[in-house]
Amino acid sequence: MPVEPLSQKDIEDRLRELPGWSLPNGEERLARTYRLASHFAATALVIHIAQIQDELNHHSDLTLGYNTVALTVNSHDAGGRVTEKDFELAHRVEAIAPGHGAG
Fold this sequence. Notes:
By secondary structure, the protein is an alpha+beta fold. Strand 2 and strand 3 form a beta hairpin. The protein starts with 7 loop residues before the first helix and ends in a 7-residue tail after the last helix. The radius of gyration is 13 Å and the shape is globular. The chain has helices at residues 8-15, 39-56, 84-96, and strands spanning 30-35, 61-64, 68-73. It has a three-stranded antiparallel β-sheet.
């Protein structure tokens, strides 16, 4: 089943539910950077994000820094645009990020 891109208004409305997430410089992707207590904590978060991505069969670009994790995501099967799948991934990541979500 094809994935439909969200309208700019839908994206802006949904971003209000995800503090810290944005569309950087008007790009067609959601982005978020997390700052953690240590390199080990950042590495552990990457592993948890990878597990979520495999569960959803939807993968972001991840960048691991010393104590940071940056991710950007859009839907390749929707022409590189933002879809509901991207927001589902963002909400799942937010829920497990230390000090940010429910986890």
